[in-house]
Amino acid sequence: MSSTRPSPNTATISLPASGCNVNQAELPDNALILPPTHQLQALLTIIRDEKTQRGDFVFTSDRIIRLLVEEGLNHLPVVPKTVRTPVGMDFDGVSFQGRICGVSIMRAGEAMEAGLRDCCRSVRIGKILIQRDEETALPKLFYAKLPEDIAERYVLLLDPMLATGGSCIKAIEVLMSHGVREDRILFLNLIASPEGINNVCNLFPKLRMITAWVDEGLDGHRYIVPGLGDFGDRYFL
Ligand code: PRP
Ligand code: URA
């Protein structure tokens, strides 16, 4: 009996290898884009869709955040470590060197905390409350609560949206005023504008950032386009 159902292979469509607006080579050296796999493009398509409801938005954003955290951990330093396996053999591996903490830029950055905790159990997480002025888009710092020993830690700075870069720059200034070394900051981000990347990465050339996607630019309200709207509203409200 013949089946009318297409096999998975014949149903596969081909897309350009990179649908991303910007190539890795065009970015500052300290900015990295996740590989634009079909999976990542499909996940981003869901969260960008204005019809996506909050449950799917949260679930899908969390999956992208997990990809970012896993990639971020690849950029932390390791030292050699040898362990004895249950069959009596040695395995020459590595272990992470140095302690880390997360710092979320509230409110939207808080959405990335669970993804970090899923990978780094009981990780300390500091918070910096920065809000953009709705008229001017300039960032205003309200509050910072950070681990006391943050100056000795590698910091995973969390914010899903990088538009003008103003909020991220202010958060980095707060971290550095608490003694954090620029080269120990790893900024994890879902969607960035080219302006935001250039502003942050040129001002802080020793910091590293990882983003899932680089969009076209900003609109008149300094929102990322095509973007996904207000991440915090879509995730939390
Ligand atoms: C959003 C976003 C970033 C910032 C990006 O936060 O989460 O923090 O804007 O814009 P920028 O690069 O131009 O500074 P917002 O201030 O809207 O607050 P929210 O997290 O409460 O949504
Ligand atoms: N904050 C958001 O949530 N989205 C943008 O596009 C810009 C700032």
Automatic annotation (TrEMBL):
The keyword Nucleotide-binding applies. NCBIfam families: PRK00129.1. InterPro entries: PRTase-like (IPR029057), PRTase_dom (IPR000836). GO terms for molecular function: GTP binding; uracil phosphoribosyltransferase activity. Its EC number is 2.4.2.9. It comes from the Eukaryota. Gene3D superfamilies: 3.40.50.2020. This is uracil phosphoribosyltransferase. Keywords: Allosteric enzyme, Glycosyltransferase, GTP-binding, Nucleotide-binding, Transferase. It is an enzyme of class 2 (transferase). GO terms for biological process: pyrimidine-containing compound salvage. Pathway: Pyrimidine metabolism; UMP biosynthesis via salvage pathway; UMP from uracil: step 1/1. Belongs to the UPRTase family. Residues 36-236 form the Phosphoribosyltransferase domain. Its cofactor is Mg(2+).
